[in-house]
Amino acid sequence: MTSHDALVGLSAVAIIAGSSAAPSVLFVARWGGTTKDIARALFVDSKQHVFVTGSTYSADFPATTRREHPNGHWCTFATSLTANSGAVVYSTVACGKGETWGTAAAPGSDGELWVSGSSDGAGLPVTIDAVQRQFGGYASPSGAGDAFVFRWSADGQSLRYATYLGGTGDESADALLSDQQGGVWIGGTTTSRDFPVTSNALQHTSGGGADGFLTHMDNRGRLLFSTYIGGSGNDQITALARLDSDRIVLVGNTSSVEKRLGGPGQGHDDGFVAVFDSRENAMTWFRRLGGGGDDHLKSVAVLRGGGIAAAGDSHSANCPHAHSGRDGWTIVLSSSGTPLATTVSAAARLARSEGSSPRRTALSG
To answer: Can you give the pLDDT at residue 346?
Structure first.
């Protein structure tokens, strides 16, 4: 890479070892081509492999497979590294005829990888058993197009399953969660009035504006459950987490005024945290969170003991410790939805710990 590539064409992953002592960096892996590469999602599986997905515009993006490279458009990539050293297991790319953005990842069975995102055109390498083989369309030429869902083989050499997921509007699948049986839960946003829903859906029709959606596919990609979640405003699901074997935490944002979505809010946009019972296909509780300004939640984690921590950004002056402008925002709730703590932060600083230098792994084309 050139210095210019390192600034604007870089994907990088840092793995930090945690213990009772200060954490230390095990390695930093960086890879990319001669233009732009963006890593969007990362997780470590039970076999200590690091999986990263994102998007690349580089025709020379470093791949270990023989799959097609970017063709003048943004394409999605998937890369697997070993967690102890950053050694490359595989790196692969998938493209369509339009712009394809990888935004979420989750483990499948036996080392396989689920990836999702959005694509604004035809030509994705869908499989014969796809729940939707044809591109559904977009609301406008600048729209996101359809969501997509891929399942990569354990060696990254083949797509075991690939499908579009959407209607005639715009969709993006921004959150994935393994169902512990090889299948996957998918969360995102849609503007389509004909988004595919199942007979057991919570909400069979669009509420208006953009709606959140929650979809469940089994390990063969069959549609088990799919529903709208939204009201008269704009709604989206941005993150998913597992509370226990049956209950799933949904995090996202809403501007809808309906009571079932916690409305009306104090500001225009509010974050929300909800718990969905996957056995009963029912919402256990839904809590809207925010102040007088615009507030958004974008990530979630389940804490030891069952607490729920969600994070995002806040523009509300009446949040505790708020500053002028937009702040970082973290809130902790109990498993029943009771707020336990909230904080905002004007800036975050990344301190470099002293000690041995991290190992660095580079992928070259």
So the answer is: 58
d(CA 102, CA 276): 25
Q: What is the pLDDT of residue 241?
A: 98
Find tokens 């074997």 and name the residue. Answer: 245
What is the DSSP code string of 100-120?
Answer: EEEEEEEE-STT-EEEEEEES
Q: Mean pLDDT per segment of 10 residues, for the chain of length 365 residues?
A: 34 64 77 89 89 92 76 88 88 92 95 96 94 89 86 95 96 96 97 97 95 97 97 97 96 95 87 96 95 92 94 80 72 94 61 35 38
Element (H, E) at 3: helix 3-8
Between the CA atoms of 59, 60, 64 and 65, what dihedral angle is there, to the nearest 10 degrees? 30
How do strand 24-31 and strand 359-363 relate by DSSP bridges?
parallel
Quick check: 36 and 63 in contact, CB under 8 A?
no
Domains along the chain with CATH numbers: 1-230 (no CATH), 234-351 (2.130.10.10)
Kindly list the strands in the beta sheet with 159-165, ordered across the sheet, starting from the edge strand earlier in the chain.
Answer: 100-107, 113-119, 146-152, 159-165
pLDDT confidence of residue 5: 32
Cα separation, 87 vs 108, whole angstroms: 21
Question: Hey, is 245 helix, strand or coil?
Answer: coil
CA nearest to 52, candidates 20, 80, 21, 94 = 80
Neighbours of 270 (CB within 10 A): 28
Return the structure tokens found at 158.
């083949």
What are 290's two structure tokens? 């925010």
